[in-house]
């Protein structure tokens, strides 16, 4: 045997002797087997889809997922944050032309309003003062592809997003304290490249019912867009009528959905948005609230659903219901305690209930116990993880941990958040194997009720909303109740209720 061959044999033997065995590399691994997508509370969108496919009406769907609520009518303006930039420097575009104002109505700051021709753009910068500079024509309306979800061509309902709930403290229907964009009565300034400055926030107001483009988002928005840097980053807030807001949502991007299912979606989304506005004066555009994509997300089937249910909301004891919903409950909706860790009796109309689905959406997450310990802040070596308690639908509510630091428990929602789990419906088991890569840390899909991304907007005036009351909804397999009367509610330091008969009030969509 040559020296070279001898060296090769020695190296091979050393490799075998020094390499750790598979048993040495094995570690305890927690396996989480789950199904569904989202917190599971309220309407499950897959359930609404399959109920519609089976012939259920809008009233059937709403009554099944929100028993005990009533239908009402209300309207209002929604304010949606669509961009936040720490750089405090951005561009907005005007596909149809328009103007920059400061403020949105009334007497303008010096040099405002600034007229912008069709296809024009404006640079907005903030350094303690708002700087507005026309930037000339923009031929491409976005710097990146539009943020659109694909429209499926199959009959499988699309995955959507989760929403938050509203607090146990009763709130009353209302419109936004900020009125819808109106036409300025001040003569416009001739377009020029000269920079204008304003001490207050500035507004991009499109002409002729057009849109405002936001290249940083690859999106266009109806209504007026406010640039506001109070509190830190330069933010863009789209202010528009709730009906236009619903048309631009991205919660359901499938025109093949049954019409009754789309109408149910429009009704709960409208209710959610108006309740969020009542709670904080603003709503986010992500799955933490409701996904809002803008004008380019509109499609005819959802436009019809919005029009057919115009103004229709869910009420409970005269207030907007917490009309939360999630994409997929895997065949059974969750109770508030299971989905959010809040008391079930705070929302009597949100309860665990089975429903038919053909798409339970199974998933699995694996994590080594040593990695899990740091995620859940267990000060020791974990050796056991079990479900200690379950809620009304069988979802976990309490998780028991045991190991070298002793036994303790955590809320199941804490494990949801620590692992970024896709839903609240899951079971756990232990295996031994090679340590898997830890799951990525993700934003929680469950948020506390009515959590706002911004401070509440102070009410400058008493707020009004018109609602029409009905008997409580139930899964009655019949027509949606007729709305027989309208009630005007004045909200301020004191509330008064005036009943107004509306004999010509049309029936809501089935």
Topology:
Blueprint: H1 3-18, H2 22-25, E1 27-35, E2 43-44, H3 45-53, H4 58-65, E3 70-73, E4 77-85, E5 89-94, E6 98-101, E7 114-116, E8 120-126, E9 130-137, E10 196-198, E11 202-206, E12 212-214, E13 219-221, E14 224-228, E15 234-241, H5 242-247, H6 259-280, E16 283-284, H7 300-308, E17 312-316, E18 319-320, E19 325-326, H8 336-340, E20 362-368, H9 369-375, E21 382-390, E22 396-403, E23 408-411, H10 412-419, E24 425-433, E25 463-469, E26 485-491, E27 496-501
Parallel strand pairs: 2-19, 4-16
Antiparallel strand pairs: 1-20, 1-24, 3-17, 4-15, 5-8, 6-7, 6-11, 8-9, 9-10, 11-14, 12-13, 14-15, 17-18, 21-22, 22-23, 25-26, 26-27
Helix pairs in contact: 3-4, 3-6, 4-6, 6-7
In short:
The protein starts with a helix and ends in a 9-residue tail after the last strand.
Provide an overview of this structure:
- The protein is an alpha+beta fold.
- The protein has a domain at 70-320 and 450-501.
- Helix content is 18%, strand content 29%.
- The chain is built from ten helices and 27 strands.
- The protein has helices at residues 3-18, 22-25, 45-53, 58-65, 242-247, 259-280, 300-308, 336-340, 369-375, 412-419; strands spanning 27-35, 43-44, 70-73, 77-85, 89-94, 98-101, 114-116, 120-126, 130-137, 196-198, 202-206, 212-214, 219-221, 224-228, 234-241, 283-284, 312-316, 319-320, 325-326, 362-368, 382-390, 396-403, 408-411, 425-433, 463-469, 485-491, 496-501.
- A seven-stranded mixed β-sheet has the order 7-6-11-14-15-4-16. A four-stranded antiparallel β-sheet has the order 5-8-9-10, with no helix packed on it. A three-stranded antiparallel β-sheet has the order 20-1-24.
- A hairpin with a 4-residue loop joins β26 (485-491) and β27 (496-501).
- α3 packs antiparallel against α4 (58-65), α4 (58-65) packs across α6 and α6 packs across α7.
- It is globular and about 70 Å long.
- Residues 15-23, 138-192, 451-469 and 475-510 have low confidence and may be disordered.
